[in-house]
Amino acid sequence: MITHSHVRLKTADNDISDVVALCCLLFHRWRCCHRLSRWCSIIRLTGAGGLQVVSTGPQTVLKAEGDSVVLGCKYRSSLRVDSGDLDVEWSALSPDSTHKDQMLLSFSGGITYTHDQVLGKGLSFTVTDPSQGDASLSIAALTPAHSATYQCKVKKAPGVDTRKVTLMVLVKPSEPQCWLEGDPWVGRAAALQCHSNTGSSPLKYSWRREGGVQLPVTAKQNSVSGELKITNLTLSSAGFYFCEVNNAVGAERCRINLRAMTPPNSSAVIVGIVVGSLLLIFILLVFISLIYWKLSSRWHHEKEFSNDIRYFTVKLQLQVLKQ
């Protein structure tokens, strides 16, 4: 009779041995135990209980330019099943199936290798020794050029497993500019504009008032262009307005003070124009009169001076003749 303890000597794994022992105790047949043991060994060699990448998380990661990121690739292996040397490879997968994938970083024989000095800049394993179950990749100072689908492949014969993560590096929106288009006259239309010069699409604009005050009833905002149009401006519409622009990785805002002014009276404007025109004409006349008086005085002075010179000249000549 085959006992439970005998069966445990024939198996390599405690959990599997329990199943095999149960079979033998029920049927008292070594053939059953032998076949079940072979079946469980096949399952182990094809993956169950062997090397597995155990990192979880989103398959798509969004990050802002300048940030850093860690792409997880933790794994576990069975010393009894996975007895080969450890090899870890990080590659950037080509979107075109006709092109080769670009290997970036690898670990083999206890040594880390960088395969592309340009794409591999800023890339490193998060731990010094990836053979301890953590082959995660760290990328510092992200740029849009780092956007790609990355694959971590861990090999330890006969086990092998992979994990893919898509990284998208976006640019945060720059601080927007706020300005007013048109005159803020009460009863007329006014438009507040908001625009950010840089930032990855799609950019979304939104307006709000300071202190949680509701936007005017006649206000309509465009989240794409950043315009807030107020078709009928009132005195209650005056105040500080905030515009916020955001995308998937960041947000910025600007502030503007909207002043609602009462338009001037048209008749008063006409009277002011007439009075101003008459005053200008009067000033011109006075100016012309002064110039004329100045020129006339100078002409009379020069004429008198000329007559005096002539008189003294004649007198001098007569005196000479008398002598």
Automatic annotation (TrEMBL):
Main subcellular localisation: membrane
Keywords: Cell junction, Immunoglobulin domain, Membrane, Tight junction, Transmembrane, Transmembrane helix
Any one annotated GO CC term: basolateral plasma membrane
Compartments where located: Basolateral cell membrane; Cell junction, Adherens junction; Cell junction, Tight junction
Gene3D superfamilies: Immunoglobulins
InterPro entries, A to Z: EJ_Adhesion_Regulator, Ig-like_dom, Ig-like_dom_sf, Ig-like_fold, Ig_sub, Ig_sub2, Ig_V-set, Immunoglobulin_dom
Occurrences of domain Ig-like (ranges): 52-166, 187-257
Keyword Nucleus: no
Pfam families: ig, V-set
SUPFAM superfamilies: Immunoglobulin
Keyword Transmembrane helix: yes
Superkingdom, taxonomy of origin: Eukaryota
Membrane topology: Single-pass type I membrane protein
Stretches that traverse the bilayer: 268-293
Signal peptide residues on this chain, from the entry's feature table: none
Protein name per its UniProtKB record: Ig-like domain-containing protein
